[in-house]
Amino acid sequence: MTAASSDPNGAAASNGTAPLSAVPDPERRLPAEVKIMNTVQGALATPPMIKTARGMSHFGEHALGWMAIGAAGAVLDKSRRREWAGVAVGAFGAHAASVVIKRIVRRPRPNHPSVQVNVSTPSRLSFPSSHATSTTAAAVLLGRVTGLPLPAVLVPPMLLSRVVLGVHYPSDVLAGSALGAASAAAVLTAEKRFSSDRNRKNPR
């Protein structure tokens, strides 16, 4: 009969069992972005927050909410119709760009067991976040029309909501926001060029 030896330094015992220090820690093996999602959901995924995030998700789906705001502004504020139309065009264009990139990258949405998925999605593709893309574009363009700091007010909550709902990795929403800012910049550049060309053709 062989007695199992004990090693105070954690060395393997003679009976073949591994020391506690050698047992894999599941937390250590989690991808960094999943750890971030776990932290965010652990802190913020309360029923009221999830309900609010779902409402934001439905509003931003396919950029329809932002396009509706742009269209309403164009109808009600005729003196700035072009700027309001730019909001709708910018949101739609940003969304379309994100969809194209999604189909190229084809990154699947989060599916780790530790991540709670709290809303349904129209596709299984994750990168970049279309909600983050269209929201950032719309916020930049709406900020231009209203003179309010809307990117700082609207963008962070939308980005955070996608992580709370468990449908996007942090890099998805950050990349989406960057793409949305670029889309808004493209709209502003096109508007300036159009105004410049019109002024040259019709000098006062």
Report on the architecture of this protein:
It is a single chain. With 204 residues, the protein is mostly helical. Helices cover 65% and strands 0% of the residues. The protein has helices spanning 26-29, 32-44, 47-60, 64-76, 81-105, 130-146, 150-164, 170-201. Helix 6 packs antiparallel against helix 7 and helix 6 (130-146) packs across helix 8. The longest helix is centred in the last third of the chain and has 32 residues, at 170-201. The protein is elongated and about 65 Å long. It starts with 25 loop residues before the first helix and ends with a helix.
Order of helices and strands: HHHHHHHH
- N-to-C span: 106 Å
Number of strands: 0
> Major sheet, described briefly?
none
Mean pLDDT: 87
Number of helices: 8
Radius of gyration: 24 Å
Low-confidence stretches: 1-25
Binned, the helix content reads: 55-70%
Tell me the fraction of residues in β-strands, as a range: under 5%
Helix/strand-derived class? mainly alpha
Shape: elongated
- As an assembly, this protein is single chain
